[in-house]
Amino acid sequence: MTTESLMAKPGTKGRIAKSVLAGIGAFVVVGVYALVSSLGLGLWTSLGPGPGLFPFAMGALLVAMSVLWLLQELRRPSETPGGADLGLVIAVVVSLAVLAAVLDLIGFQLGMFLFLMFHLKVRGHRGWPSSLIIALAGSVGAFYAFNYGLNVTLPAAGIPFLNSIGL
């Protein structure tokens, strides 16, 4: 037996951090909102799945995962740092705002590529090859998945040159 094992009291549980509880609560609220909102869209039609089925399933999954997270935290609370990384929060919020502002001008593929490159290379300090591959796969892959797989049109570039080359 080590000194640490003799000093630790078996069965003692730490408290769940307020920030963790706030995160769990926020996910539950978003999940419940998705569940309730999707009911108005219709879950099923005479032709098959309705427009509300996917958001309903995602809302249910989010609520279920939040409950599992809460149970996990009750069993063994995670060690949380003293506070959130304010630089990371600001970088994400500002980069999302910039992405939303330029999406109609440069299009989804280029905008998402630049967004992902910023977070992978600048914020995440990843190498060039992995950053380029992930950003390219993420932006082009999401574009094709939405445009051709789900028939959801994403913004194309408003600049004629970019539009002419398929962005």
UniProtKB/TrEMBL annotation:
Q: Can you give the residue ranges of the DUF1468 domain?
A: 22-155
Under the heading Pfam families, the entry gives:
TctB
What name does this protein carry?
Tripartite tricarboxylate transporter TctB family protein
